[in-house]
Amino acid sequence: MDGPLTLKLVDGPRCDESQSHFEESKDVSRKIDQLIGMVLHNVAIETGESSAQWNHATANCVLLLRVVLERYQEQPVLLDPHLEGMVSQLVEPIRRVIHSANGTVPGACKALHPLYSVLYVLCKIRGAKTIVKFLTHDVADLEPTLAHLNATPPDLALWESRYVLLLWLSLILMIPFDLKTIDSGDTSHSLVDSIVIQGKLFLGYAGKEYEGSAILLTRLLTRRDTVETHLTPFLEWCTSQALEIQSNITSNSVHLLRGILCVLCTIYKLGLRASLQSTLPQLVPLCMTLTEGPACNTNSLIKKLVVKLTQRVGLCFLKPKLAAWRYQRGSRSLAVNLANIGALNGKEPVTIAVKGGLGIASNPDNDDGDDDEDDVPEEIEQVIQVMLNGLRDKDTIVRWSAAKGVGRISGRLSQDFANEIVSSVIDLFQEDILPPETGSTLPNLAAVSDSTWHGACLAVAELARRGLLMPVWLEKVVPWISLGLSFDIKRGSHSIGAHVRDAANYVCWSFFRAYDPALLLPHIATLSRRLIITATLDREVNVRRAASAAFQEGVGRLGGSGGIGAIPNGIDIVTVADYFSVGNRNAAVLEVAVTLAQYKDYRAEIISHVAEVMTIHWDKSMRVLASQALYKMTFIDLDFVLTAVLPGLIPKAASFDLSVRHGACLSIGEICLAWSQIRRGSHSETEPVSPTKDLVSIWWTEEEMESVITPITNIIPTYPKNFLETFGSDLTRTALCRLVECLANANWPKGATNDVTSHLTSWWDVVHSSLANRDEIVQDGAATSMASLARYCWAGADDSNTSREQLSLFVEKVLSKIRFANAPSQATPGSGLVGGTKEAAAPRYGGKLTQQQPGSLLLDRFPRRGYALAIGKLPEGILRIHGANLIAGLAALVRAVEGGGEDAEARRNAAASIVGVYERLESVGIRKVISRELFQDSMEALFVGMEDYSTDSRGDVGSWIREACFKAWPILIPLFAKEDAAGSADVGETVYMVQDMNARAVKGLLRQSVEKIDRVRENAGIALLRLVNRALNADAGVKVNLGVSVVALNAIKEAIEGSDLNWLNTASVYPRLVPLLAMDELRDELLLGLVVSVGGISESLVRFSTSSFTDFVNSLPNGKSNGKINNPSLKQFVVAFMALFARPAYVKDRISVSLIEVTDVLIGCGAISKIVGYAMEDASLLFGCVKKEVFKSRDVKKLLAAIKVFIGLATLPGVGALDVRRKALAQLVVYLTHTYPRVRRASSEGLYIALTTASGGEMDEYEDSMEAIEDILLSTDWDQSVASLKDLRVQMAGYLRVQLPAAKV
Amino acid sequence: MGLLSILRKLKAREKEMRILILGLDNAGKTTILKCINGEDVSEISPTLGFNIKTLEHNGFKLNIWDVGGQKSIRSYWRNYFEQTDGLIWVVDSCDRPDRMEDCRNELAALLKEERLAGATLLIFANKQDLPSARTKEQIAEILHLSEIQTHHWHIESCSAVTGAQLLDGMNWIVSDIADRVFMMD
Fold first, then answer.
1. Contacts with A, B 118-137, CB within 8 Å
2. What region holds the Tubulin-folding cofactor D C-terminal domain (chain A) (predicted)?
3. ipTM of the predicted structure?
C-alpha cells in the first residue's frame, strides 16, 4: 500500500515495453469464438454437467484468455479500441440464451459461466465502469436477465456470473421508461420490489457481488419513478441493519455491513443532491456511531468505507462548485499563442498578456463566495473532524480516502472555512512534537506518528493539486515537508518512515508543478538541498527515485545552470542523479553523492547528513556505506571534515547505543585514513601515498594533536569492556578492528599518549581477542587489522633488539594459537585424511606441534581459525624473518585431525594462508626464506587438503578445504616457476617446484571439476582453465611447465574454454569433460572424479554424468586398440577402471559404493558383455573386485549395489561367460542367508530376475529344476530367521549346480 | 492502491501528457518551445539546460520538456512519477549533409531506447522560412523515416520564427497520444 510497494508498478518487466497495440487481438477474438462454441454446446446439452472434458477445455480457454489479457493490466488503455468488439462478441451469445427457454435453466446458467469469467477479466483490467457501457441496454432484456440471474445457482464458484449480471442489470435499469409500464406482473412483488429484495441479498455476499449489487440498487433507487417511494424505506433499512450489525458484529454479518456501506457510498455519489438532502440528518449520526464503533477499529475496509461515506454525505450538504477563490497558475493556450505569433508575424515581438500572472486569487469574479457561507450546516464540522481523524489512521487506504475527502470538501467551502481546514491539516505535523534535543534546532520527532505525517502529506498534496492550498501557506508547510523528506523514526531494531518520505517527495513534486516559480523561490534553497540528500542518501530506492524526479521537476520549472539560476548547478545534478544512477544504493552514495559534494552549495549539507544521520542509521549496511562515503568526502573538503565532522563523531565512538558506536568508530577510522593520506601527498582516494613519505613525515599539526589525535588514540584504551563482551559485541569488535586498521594504515602518531606503549597494548588486545571470536566476520576483520597493525609496529622498523624481541614474542603467540593442545591423533581410515604423509611430516616439524598446552579443545577452535586466517595477511617484513616457522605451522594445521574430530574452518584458513604467505614472500624471495624441504612439505599439505572429504553435521565440510587448496595452484605454480627461473641462475640451486607436483595439481583439479558439488566443480574448473591457459600462453612471462603433455593441455582447454560452458549445469559440463577419459595421462584421476558423480544421488547429476559416461564407453573400439594413441580399447578402459578398486583405503572408502554402482552401469551399457568374448578373465576379475569390496561389509547400501552387479554378471550372455555367471549366481545364493533380511530379499528377487530374464538360452541348463527354483524364490518368506533358511539355500545351490563356500556365517 | 497507480488515474482524469523536444543543437528546439509558449523568439542563445512548460491544448495539459544542448539526455527519458508520452524531434532543414547524417544516427539511437517504446514521434522539419530548406519529403528520406516500425510517427514542415504549421504538428501529436493513452468519452 505504502510507497515502497508501489515501485513494482513502474519497474515490472511489462511496463518497459509499453505496448502501443493490442497485438494478440486476432488470437483473442478467435479464442473467444472457440470458447463460445464450447459453451453453447454445453448449454445445448442443458445439463451443464456434461463431460468433464468439455469443462476442462473451457477452463483452459478462459485461463489462456486471462493470461493474455492480464498482460495489459498496467496499460489497459491499449485495449480500448478493441473493447467494444470483445464485449459484444461475448454478450451476444449470452443474450440469445437468456431470451431462449434455456435462460432460466440452472444447468444452462452454469454452462454460460466461462463467458462471464472473461467479461469479468475485462472489468478487472479496464474497470467495470468502462466495460458496462458496452453491454446492451434493451428494455426487453430487463425481465429475462433478472430471471436469468435468479436462476443462476448460488454456487460460490459462479460469482463472476452474478457480478457481471448485476452490473448489466444496473445498465438496463437506466432505461427512460417508467418501470411500471414494463412490469409484466408475473411475480407476487412488483418489479422494483423484487429487485430490491434480490439486491439486499447480494449485499451480504462475501464475494464481489456486493459491489455489483450496490451499483444496481443505486441505479434503481435514484430513478425518478422510484426515488420518492423506495429510497427512504431502503435507507431506513440500511441504517437499522447497520446499527444492528454494529451492536453485534460477527464474521458473517460484517459482509452485509460492508455491502450496506458500499451501496450508501454509491447512492450519495450518483444520486441527485436534491432528493438526498432530506435524508442527510439521519446519515450523519449513523456515520458518527460507526466511526466510534468496534467494526471500524477491527476492519480497515469498513473504516475506509465509513470515512468515504462520511465524505460523500458531507459533500451532499454543500453545493457542488469550483471554489472561485482557488489558486490557479496561469496556463497558456498553445493555440492562442500561435495565433498571436501568426498575427504578429514579421512585426516586433509583443509580450502577450498572460492569464493568471502570479496567480494569486486570479479570479476577481468572487460573487458567489460569500452568500454560501451561512448555509454551511453544523454537521459539516463533524464530517471534517472524521476526515482529519482519518488522516491519522493506521491504514493507508483510510488515509487516502480521508485525504481525498479533505480536498473535495474544502473545494466547496468558502475560503475562510477552507483555510481553517488547511490550518488543521498543517497542525497535524505538530502533534506529539517534543522539544528539540539539546544542541539541535530541529523539532524532535521521536514521538510523532508516522501515519499522521503520511496522512498530512497526502492531504497537503491533494489540497495543492486542487489549488486549495493558497500560496501564503507555503511558508508554513515547506519546513514540515522538508522534515518529511528525511522522516525516519526508530522502532526497535529498524525504523519506519519510507512511506512518509515517499509522500513528502510527492508533495514537492506537485508543488513544483502547481505553483508559479516565483512563489517557490524563497523555499527552493531548502527544498533542493533536502531533495538532493534524499535522492542520493536515502535507504530506499523508490524514495531516492521520487526525490530525483522531484528535483528534476524543480530544475525544469525554476531553472538553474552553472552557478546561476534558482537552483545552482541544477542541470548538472539532474544529469548526475537521475532515475537510473540513483537506482543502486551503493552507487548512489559512493558515486553520485560524492560527486554532488563537489558542488559548494550542497557540500556542507551532504557531508553533515552522512556524518550525523547516516552514521547512526539503524541498518548496518547504511552505516558502513556512510563511513566509506566519508572517506571519499574527506578528500573533497578536509578542513570541513576536520572541524565540523570529526569532533562530533569522537564522543559517539563509545556510545551506549550499538548502532551509534559502530557507525562512529568506522567513520572515524575512514576519515583519519583519508586525512593522513592527503597530508602525505595523495590528492584523491585512487592516488597512492608516495612511499617516501609513508613513514617519515609528521603529517599532523601540534594543534590537531591536542584537539583530535589524542582523543582518537584514547578511544580504545578507555573503551568500556562490557561493549566488547555483551550482546552486539561482534559489531563493536568489527568496527574497532577497522578503526585500528585505518589508524595503523594512517601511520598514526605513536607517541601520542604519555606512555608510548599503552594505547598500542590496548589496540593489540582488541585485535587478539577479536581473532578468537566465534564469528567469522569478526575474525576476518581482525585478521586484516592485525596485518596492518603488525606492519605499523614492525615492518621497516629499526632493527632494535626490543623491536625484534617483541616481534618474536608476537610470532610465538600466533604460532601457539594454531597448535593443538593435544597432539593431533593419527588420521584414521575414513577420516578422509592421508595418514601416511602426516606421519612423515610429524617428525620434522612436529616438535612444536606436540607441545602440550592447557585449555579446552572446543575453546581453542575459534582462535585457531582466526590466527590461521591472519597469518596469510601478515606483511612481508615479518615473513622475511619468521616465514619458515609460520609455513611449517600452517602446513601442519592443514593436515591436522584433532582428536578424532576435525576443525574444517581452521584447515581451510590455513590452506588459504599458505598461499597468502607465499604470495607476499615473492618480493622478498621465497628461496631465501623457505628451505626446499619445508617447501615441499607445505605443497604436500595442499595435496592432502585436495583429498579432504571430511563430513560433519553440515555436510561435506571438506569441500571448503579442497577449494582453498586447489585455488592455490593457478597462483602458486606460475609464482614458483618465476622463482625457480630466477633461482636457477645461481649455480647448483635445485628447482623447488618439480614438474611431477605440477602434474598432480592439474590432475587433481581435473578430478574436482567433474565431482558432485556444483560450487566445487565450478571453482575447480575455473582454476584449471587459468592454469592451463597460463601454461599454454608463451608470452605471459616465465614458462610454466605443468608436466602434462601439450596435447592433453590443449584437449583440456578445448573442453572447458568458452562462455557457453556453465559449470553449475551438469548437462553442460559432463558431455564436454568425459571424452577427456581418452587421454591416457588424464584418465585415472578423471575416472576417480567421475565415479563419484555417476554413483551420486542427485538426479540431474547422475543422469548427465551417467549418460556422458556410457556414451563414451560405447564409443570405445572393441578388440585390439586401433592404433590411435588417444583412443584406448574398451578392454584397456575396463582394466583402468578395475585399478580403482586397488586404490588405497583412504581414497577408496569414500567411493566404494560409487565404484560398485559404476560397475553396474558398465555392465548395463553392455561394455562387459562385449569384452567377455575374448577377455573372459577381465569379467572374472571384475567379479573378484566387487566381491572383495563387499566382503564382510555391513553397509546395506553397498551390499544392495553389489547384488545389482551380481545380477548383471549372472546374466552375461555367451559361452565364455559361463564361469562368471556361475560365480555370480553362487554369490547370490550365499546372500540368501545373509544376516540382513533386506539383503536376503534383494538377493532372492535378484536370482529370480537373473534366471527368468536371460534371453539367449544361458539358463537353459536349469530348465528342469526351474519350477522348483521359482517356487522357492517366490513362496519363501525371506524375513524369517536365517537358521530356517539354511536348507533352502542348500537346495538352491543344488539346483543351480554351484559350490557353496565351506565355511559360512 | 499505491501512490503511482493513483497518479496514473489522476493523469488520465486531468488529461496530462508529457512531451520531450529533442534534436541536434541549433535545430531550433527552444525557439519552437518559446513560440508555442507565446514568448519572444527574436533573441535565442544556445540552450544551456532544460525547461519545463505547461500548456493547454484541445483540452489537454501538455508538459513540454526542452532538454536542448546537453550531452546526456538519458536522464530525462524517465522519472519516478511519469513516463514520456511523446517526442518532438526537431531538424534544421538547411543543415549540412554530414550533420543530417548525425541527425539520422542520433534519432535511430534514440528510438532504440526501450524506455521510449510506444512514445509518439513528431518530426519538425524546421527553418522552412529559409530559401535553402529541404522539403519534408526529402528529410523523411534522409532520416529513413519509412523504416520506423516501433513508433507512430509523422513529419511536419514548419518555421519556428513565423510559427507556420507548428499548430498542425502539435495537433497531430496531441491527438495521436490522446488516441493511444486516453479513452474518448
1. 118-119
2. 1000-1198
3. 0.89
